[in-house]
Design a protein that fits this description.
Blueprint: E1 5-9, H1 13-26, H2 38-44, E2 56-65, E3 68-78, H3 79-84, E4 91-99, H4 103-119, E5 124-127, E6 129-130, E7 136-137, E8 139-142, H5 159-165, E9 169-179, H6 189-197, E10 201-205, H7 211-225, H8 237-247, E11 256-261, E12 264-273, H9 276-282, H10 290-301, E13 305-313, H11 322-333, E14 338-345, H12 349-358, E15 361-372
Helix pairs in contact: 6-11, 9-10
């Protein structure tokens, strides 16, 4: 213990609640942080409800100065990651990092997570990742003057310094792009129209009446399309169901499409209204008035921004322009609504090239760090 500073593993309901509530104090007064719903955070950290716990070993830690929580971190041993990336079996993960602006506190949290991961046989700690690359990934390092969109992180500007002073180095940058009517001036209209005139490629909205069937195609296509991407691990059936339960109320078939070739699904794109614009009003609570505020924002005042959360094309149908048509369809349907597209890997040149062609602005950068244990 140094200067009354100590760390301990989270144990019991009271510790979990303290872990969840710490960020509310840490970001008090921040104009851009979006308070998560407390109910959702409790389910996310509940091994009985979050299917990630079925294959990943996870230990939460809190840092305290005296009796006051001053930081949090999660250490994650993701067994599926090692199966799909055998060259990285030595990599363990950390996430849910929140910390006051004090290097000693940050170092204590890193040490707690590193010690646990070392006991799990890991030689590198990578993060922040909450808890897999299919969820919230990275540390915001550029773009602090804007609210986060749904399922994207936000953190204080000093976090990057805490990481780098502790010896963490960049593993990968992830980008988010902003596309608005002002950016887009018809750059791909002619190409998209010509591709569709050939007749084989058709775009249809998600069939919400057959949501399980649509979801199964999304799972198959997403897992195939992303299979070779850095850090990717396929969704399990229960993980996808868990995520879909959260996102289904937001799915609007003006912004969620399936591309078909000769009548068979070949690709998809899912954008959803940025529910953070509504959730922010609830201040973490659904009751007594939070749910009414969310519904009011979503249904009456409307969200003014979308987030494109996933896009994929089956490998056998790539290089036919399906991605161009999907993006073009979104642009035509989203008149008056901006979209944040991301995240996109810093070295995914085909997608970066298309976004540049559209006139999209790189709005935010998220960084994943590594450190040897």
């Amino acid at each position: 213990m140094q200067d009354g500073l100590w760390t301990r593993p989270v144990s019991g309901r009271a510790d979990v609640e303290a872990f969840i509530r710490f960020p509310f104090r840490l970001y008090e007064g921040s104009p851009h942080w979006c308070p998560p719903l407390l109910l959702e955070r409790r389910e996310f950290l509940d091994p009985r409800k979050n299917p990630v716990f079925e294959y990943a070993r996870i230990q939460l830690f809190i840092a305290l100065r005296g009796a006051d929580v001053v930081g949090t971190i999660a250490a994650i041993n993701n067994s599926r990651y090692g199966e799909y990336h055998p060259e990285d079996r030595h990599v363990g993960f950390f996430g849910l990092f929140e910390c006051v602006g004090d290097q000693a506190v940050a170092d204590a949290l890193y040490a707690a997570a590193a010690g646990w991961l070392k006991n799990e046989g890991k030689g590198v700690m990578r993060g922040p990742v909450n808890f897999t690359t299919n969820d919230i990934v990275g540390l915001l390092v550029d773009g602090f003057d804007d609210d986060p969109t749904i399922m994207m992180p936000y953190n204080h500007t000093y976090f990057g310094g805490l990481f780098e002073a502790a010896g963490f180095t960049k593993a990968k940058d992830l980008y988010a792009f902003s596309l608005t009517e002002a950016n887009y001036r018809g750059q791909i209209d002619a190409v998209a129209d010509k591709l569709q005139e050939r007749g084989r490629i058709k775009i249809r909205p998600f069939d919400m009446g057959r949501f399980p069937r649509e979801l199964e195609f999304v799972r198959t296509c997403y897992n195939s399309a992303w299979a070779r991407n850095w850090g990717f691990v396929p969704w399990t059936d229960r993980e996808l169901a868990f995520i879909a339960k959260e996102l289904k109320p937001l799915v609007d078939n003006r912004f969620a499409f399936v591309a078909e070739i000769d009548g068979k699904p070949a690709g998809f794109s899912i954008s959803v209204p940025d529910a953070n614009q509504a959730i922010k009003l609830a201040r973490g609570r659904l009751f007594p008035f939070g749910l009414l505020q969310i519904l009011w924002k979503l249904k009456v005042r409307k969200c003014t921004r979308l987030r494109t959360i996933a896009m994929g094309v089956l490998p056998e149908h790539r290089r036919r322009g399906i991605e161009v048509i999907l993006v073009h369809h979104l642009i035509r349907n989203a008149v008056g609504t901006g979209s944040e597209m991301g995240w996109v890997l810093e070295d995914n040149e085909p997608m970066l090239s298309m976004l540049r062609r559209l006139g999209a602005d790189r709005a935010k950068t998220y960084r994943v760090y590594d450190r040897s244990i």
